[in-house]
Amino acid sequence: xxxxxxxxxxxxxxxxxxxxxxxxxxxxxxxxxxxxxxxxxxxxxxxxxxxxxxxxxxxxxxxxxxxxxxxxxxxxxxxxxxxxxxxxxxxxxxxxxxxxxxxxxxxxxxxxxxxxxxxxxxxxxxxxxxxxxxxxxxxxxxxxxxxxxxxxxxxxxxxxxxxxxxxxxxxxxxxxxxxxxxxxxxxxxxxxxxxxxxxxxxxxxxxxxxxxxxxxxxxxxxxxxxxxxxxxxxxxxxxxxxxxxxxxxxxxxxxxxxxxxxxxxxxxxxxxxxxxxxxxxxxxxxxxxxxxxxxxxxxxxxxxxxxxxxxxxxxxxxxxxxxxxxxxxxxxxxxxxxxxxxxxxxxxxxxxxxxxxxxxxxxxxxxxxxxxxxxxxxxxxxxxxxxxxxxxxxxxxxxxxxxxxxxxxxxxxxxxxxxxxxx
Length: 423
Hints:
Largest sheet: 2 strands, antiparallel
Helix content: 55-70%
Number of strands: 4
Distance between the termini: 80 Å
Order of helices and strands: HHHHHHHHHHEEHHHHEEHHH
């Protein structure tokens, strides 16, 4: 059987399906061929270099760091492409899109490196990344590595927040178009196995939704929940006034967010996602406002969260006044008390936190009610709001200046925020 046997073995190894292979083996071992079939052992596979996953991971994170600082435009383009791919409906489509996008990514990174936008360390990371990414492309694991890159960026943001630091970017690109933020909401629906619209999530589902939305926008889940607690008492169907609705109290001025089969008024997850988007927009507005005054923005996450919460409540236009007054008074932008008591000032909570007395900084013209402080001047600049009798009675004159105004709202929110045991 040398000739025919060899031919059949070649067929078996080269083109036969498993069923055909079994038929061939049965025929070869039947009476038609007297000699028993002897199959030579297959040669050992050629060893291939196995990527060092830790080195690959470090290269990815290093490139993320490098691009954020050295080539923000490319970083934003990569982020947009990642959002587009994430929004594709099936994993197969997402895998194919990642594989198709990699050559474009490599070309863009080469161009960035050629233009001198990488540090020597960044160039080394790019070399490592290219080697392992090409291996991943060949062995079909590039999609998994791309998923890791996205998770690495999310983890980096969260790690900064846990350390009490945050990064404000005046050019941050956000998923502001409706299909973009709805895609995030839909992913959370899918992850939590919640079919269709819902305004009756369980407490566990709410916590999961806050966590997932927080990761998408780089906002602490605990803080998102605090905002919802402050805005609505965590009630999912609550029109506290004719101008806002839902757990995050999204104002009706955002008319587009109220349209469509799934929107902020008929779906809690969408309401949370849109609220997180608005909160992320305040971070961007904060960065721009401080840059316009030629001073560094705050990096302490507690201060950023506090100011962002005020801007969520009153509108991002507030932040230009806060930055202007902070620059004029030369306060420490990372010190919460300076915004209330002036440079070097402080405060004390009285009556179990029901009221506050300001301890003005030395040499400032701030008084014990906080008058002339950054917050008080900014509150006056955006204009007073006439509150309903019920809200005025429930709120109270927190700082003892003889009136209930928006500064009392902000002090109330701030006192609650600083005293919340879960934060």
